[in-house]
Amino acid sequence: MVEEIVNTSNSKKATNNRPKSVYSWNVTDVQKWLRRHCSDYYQLYAENFIQHDITGRTLLRMNDNSLLRLGITNDVHREAIWRQILKLRLKTDIMEIRDMQRRNTNNMFYDYSIA
């Protein structure tokens, strides 16, 4: 019986291939994102992101002025990083909307099955 529970929980993890929510990213996750999406500027600004303890939640709330205060004074660099943040916000918003739609669909099915 215990094995069945363990196998069930493992299979749920295996079928859930969704990426970790940006809101739950830690500083290391942000560093990975920065390296992957802003590779031209990673060496210049990675330490700034670490020193300011930039997490996923913080990253999504940043704006041009935040990047300037973070020490990214070069307009071209700041604009490129800002563009990547905007893409990340959009992707995150789309995933949240899909999750809401899925929950609503599941709730509707549940409501009809009770009746």
Automatic annotation (TrEMBL):
Stored SMART domains: SAM
Domain SAM, chain residue ranges per copy: 25-91
GO cellular component, one term: cytoplasmic side of plasma membrane
GO biological process: cell surface receptor protein tyrosine kinase signaling pathway
PROSITE patterns: SAM_DOMAIN (PS50105)
Pfam families: SAM_2
InterPro entries named in the record: Aveugle-like_SAM_dom (IPR039144), SAM (IPR001660), SAM/pointed_sf (IPR013761), SAM_domain-containing_protein (IPR052268)
PANTHER family associated with the record: PROTEIN AVEUGLE, STERILE ALPHA MOTIF DOMAIN CONTAINING PROTEIN 10
Coiled-coil ranges per UniProt: none
Name the UniProt record assigns to this protein: SAM domain-containing protein
Lineage: Eukaryota, Metazoa, Ecdysozoa, Arthropoda, Hexapoda
